[in-house]
Amino acid sequence: MREPVPWARRCIKPEGYQAYGVALQEVLRKYGAKFLVRGGTFEAVEGKARGRNIVLDYATALACYRSPEYDKAKALRAGAADIDVIVIEGYDGPPPTD
């Protein structure tokens, strides 16, 4: 089953985050990630929100996150951004009726 992965971030050092972003592209390509949401306008209607949100869709999210390639990318991000990464099992069934 595919795993949507929402990411929320607060950028602290843009230059460090840029290096992470470049390295991350290669990792996401290798693991077949597809962007469903990448930034964009949003409205936090309840609770707290980050300034930028990303949702990725891929079947290998945990393998990607735990990979040596992503470890290298994470090292570039250290101290540059405060992010939340959540892996959520996808849903392929019929629309809910409840």
Automatic annotation (TrEMBL):
Gene3D superfamilies: 3.30.70.100. InterPro entries: Dimeric_a/b-barrel, DUF1330. This is DUF1330 domain-containing protein. The lineage of its organism: Bacteria, Pseudomonadati, Pseudomonadota, Alphaproteobacteria, Hyphomicrobiales. SUPFAM superfamilies: Dimeric alpha+beta barrel (SSF54909). Residues 13-91 form the DUF1330 domain. Transmembrane segments: none annotated.
